[in-house]
């Protein structure tokens, strides 16, 4: 069995990972999730874990200059965390998340990492040092600036880790 981790540009790699998304999040599953109907940004980068050349785990990365408490702040976004059902509990999502955080840290410009998840998934992240963000988050949806509270925001310390206050993503969420 060969395992490879790649970090690739977001849009061109979409066809490679679409079958994995369709398997984990088919439309009928998404319809039941808190983020059904949310308009998401396209990722800048993707972490793809392949086992014997089959993409089995994925994490998306986003770079965004947001506004926190009226000042610009550089956010490293993380999303699209998913593992093929037959490859779970082998540490693949943990490895992919670590690779994503290393990438964001190595870029040096990102102040903190931010992800959004369903409330029942927060334990997965808080056991990996992510902390709940307690403030209000605003984002773009269908061209308007709206309060974004469909999911729980979680932050991870890079240079700093704000936990409260108004945070504007200045664009689509992820
Ligand atoms: C969540 C998910 C990405 C984990 O992938 P994975 O490759 O199995 O993750 P890892 O092997 O690195 O870690 C698995 C551990 O996380 C734990 N875990 C999984 N879901 C959890 C949850 N909802 N709450 C707390 N812990 C959770 C597992 O029990 C396991 O713990 P163990 O190693 O002590 O047995 C995978 O279950 C998945 O794709 N789920 C469906 C998509 C999804 O919900 N993605 C998250 C979106 S925010």
How would you describe this protein?
There is one protein chain. The chain is α+β, with helices and mostly antiparallel strands. Helix content is 20%, strand content 39%. It contains 4 helices and 10 strands. Strands 1, 2, 3, 4, 5, 6, 7, 8, 9 and 10 form a 10-stranded mixed beta sheet that branches. The protein is globular and about 50 Å long. It binds coenzyme A. Coenzyme A is lined by residues 24, 57, 81-83, 88-94, 117, 120-121, 123-124.
Summarize the amount of helix as a percent range: 10-25%
Structural Rg: 16 Å
Structural class, from helix and strand content? Answer: alpha+beta
In the CATH scheme, what's the topology name? Aminopeptidase
Q: How many distinct folded domains? A: 1
CATH superfamily: Gcn5-related N-acetyltransferase (GNAT)
Which CATH class applies here?
Alpha Beta
**Which sheet architecture does the biggest sheet show?**
10 strands, mixed
What bound compounds does this protein have?
Answer: coenzyme A
| Euclidean distance between termini CA atoms | 32 Å
Order of helices and strands: EHHEEEHEHEEEEE
């Amino acid at each position: 069995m060969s395992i490879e981790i790649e970090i690739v540009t977001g849009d061109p790699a979409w066809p490679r990972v679409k079958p994995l998304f369709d398997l984990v999040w088919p439309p009928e599953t998404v319809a039941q999730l808190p983020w059904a109907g949310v308009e998401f940004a396209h990722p800048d980068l993707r972490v793809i874990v392949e086992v014997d050349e089959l993409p089995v785990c994925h994490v998306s990365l986003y770079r965004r200059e947001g506004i926190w408490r009226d000042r610009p702040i550089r956010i490293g976004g993380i999303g699209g965390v998913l593992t093929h059902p037959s490859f779970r509990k082998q540490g693949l999502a943990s490895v992919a998340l670590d690779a994503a955080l290393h990438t964001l840290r190595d870029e040096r410009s990102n102040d903190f990492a931010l992800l959004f998840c369903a409330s029942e998934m927060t334990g997965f992240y808080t056991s990996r040092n992510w902390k709940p963000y307690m403030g209000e988050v605003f984002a773009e949806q269908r061209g308007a600036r709206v309060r974004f509270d469909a999911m729980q925001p979680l932050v991870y310390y890079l240079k700093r880790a704000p936990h409260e206050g108004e945070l504007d993503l200045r664009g689509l969420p992820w």
